[in-house]
Every structure is written in C-alpha cells, then in structure tokens.
Amino acid sequence: MLLANETVAEYLDTSPVPGLFRVHERPDPLKVQKFEEFVATLGHSLSVPADMVRPRHFQALLTRIDGTPEERPIAVLMLRTMQKARYAPANLGHFGLAFSSYTHFTSPIRRYPDLVVHRLLRAARRGAMTAVEREETAESLPEVARHTSERERRADEAERELAQWKKVRFMRDKVGEEFDGYVTGVASFGLFIELVEHFVEGLVHISTMADDYYRFLDSTHTLRGENTRKVYRLGDRVRVIVAKVDLDKRQVELALADIARSMRSAAPKREARPEKAASRVSPPKGPARRRPPVRKRQRPGKNARGRRRG
Predict the structure, then answer these.
(1) Among 100, 127, 150, 261, whose Cα sits 20 to 30 Å from the Cα of 156?
(2) Least confident residue range of 68-72, 91-95, 155-159, 232-236
(3) Backbone angles phi, psi at 218, to 5 degrees
(4) 91 φ, ψ to 5°?
C-alpha cells in the first residue's frame, strides 16, 4: 500500500497534471527543543540540533529506548511533537514516513482524496487534459485539499467522541474499583491516566492529591510534591480508583489509590453520640370536661310519638 501511494505521488509530481498529495511537514523546531529537554532528563538525546532533525534521528532514539521503562513517555511525547498530516496541492514530502513524495491512492471507495487522485492519474496517463482544464484544476485543488483535511479532522473528532462515550458507559458500574494505569498526560490541574486493562482514560484532579502541594513543571512534564518530593511524570505506572463517572460530560474521574487510602486512614474517627430519649410532655391535669349531649333531630311532619300530623 505504501509503495503504491509513493509511486503514484512520484508520477503525479513529474507530470504536467496538477496533483493532490498527502503531506506531513517537519516538526516545529521549538517543539523539538522542548522534546530534547524532556528526553535529556531521562538520559537520552536526539544528538542533533532542533532545526536539523530528520526522521532517522527519531527512529534511532526509539531503537535505543526499546524495552526500557522510559519508552512509553518518550513515545507519547514524540507523537505530540510531530505535525499533523494533511492534504495539499504541493508536494511537501512526508516526514513521518521519510518519503519525498506521498499521496492517498489505494482507497477510492471510502476516501474522496483517493478518488480525486485516481481521476488526476487517469487524466495524466491519457493526456486528455487541456491547458484550460489544467488551470481550472490547479485553481480548485487548494480548496479540495483544505475541505478534505477539515472533514478528516471532524471525522476523527466524532470517532473519538463516540469511543469516549462508549468507554464512559462501560465504566459506569465500576465506581470504587481499582485498576492499574499509565500517566498519559500531565497538566497543572492533574494527571491523565489510561487504564491498562480497559484502555479507558480518566483524570486524577489535583484537588484529590491532598497528601502534598504539587507544582507543575512544564519543561519536564511532571508534578512534584513540595514536601514529599514525590514526582509524577509521563509514562509512570500508577494504581487508581474509579471515583466518579459522568455520562453527560463523558468523563471518568479517578483518584490515586495510595493517596486515597492514606487520607482515609488519617481522617479522625467520629464517636457515635448516644441518642437522647425524646422527652414526653404529659398533658396538664385539670377537671375533665363533659361533652354536651347529642340531640337527635326529628323529621319534619311527625309528632313526638311518630304520628303524622293531620
């Protein structure tokens, strides 16, 4: 598949017919520099300046950290350092695949850009496109590239939203249970944890980390306790408790198990207070009141003896 996409992209790049390419540009040097600072704290390096980095440098780093404890955090941050792939009428190469030319060609029945590439390839091979048609196609391709890239992002967002709703729904009956997880994100407001068993991501809010005051260090992507010097960083394996599941917000709230247990054990136990017996107030004594006799009303038209009046 990759070879077919690369071959078609090279053919369109050298033909007079305009082309639609799948491009993945080089990462921002500023992001690469921040990534280099992070991996340096773990004893690794790209061994190249940020503005001269190539795909082989990232690949060499992945090879060196294969099977090590720091493999997961470095791989997670490496993906976030990269640019997002998109469609473009100009051939800018594909950094992630280390291809000088690349396009999407193999799936015309499910992706519109592939269908556009099929039409362009057919026109290039037959030589049936006139100069006017080439000019009109070249003018329309930037909008096609922008629109298809935007739709792709929206489709990905919808897919992630649906998957997240399914995951939250799956976790709604697991409140109070403990799971193992990895730290996939560190922010000033807490830790993002992905459960190992179910691949569900939740948030440990910093307000639940009440055993210390944690300070966020952006350069190292860590939360560090000021008193205990405890550090949470990307890729750390932790034990968490499912604290709350919110279907409306599609959120799973977690708590670090060791902190939750320590806070429960440190909480003072409340002594049960004896319930006071309800005091019964006796009614005041006094002379009993007699109820007035109930008189029966006679029916109209009858005398005292029950006879009708003449």
Answers:
(1) 100
(2) 68-72
(3) -65, -35
(4) -85, 105
Angle at CA of residue 213, ends 211 and 218, nearest 5°: 130
Nearest to 23 by CA among 148, 134, 125: 148
Instruction: Return the closest-CA partner of residue 53 out of 81, 30, 26.
Output: 26
- pTM for this prediction: 0.75
* In the chain, % of residues over pLDDT 70: 86
pLDDT at 235: 82
Q: Residue 283: what pLDDT? A: 54
Q: Which residues pair with 21 in a beta bridge?
A: 88
Average pLDDT value over all residues in the chain: 87
- Predicted confidence (pLDDT) per residue in 56-82, tens digit: 999 999 999 998 878 888 888 899 999
Domains and CATH numbers, the chain: 2-168 (no CATH), 178-266 (2.40.50.140)
Reported as a single tens digit per residue, the pLDDT across 101-151 is 999 999 999 999 999 999 999 999 988 788 999 999 999 999 999 999 999
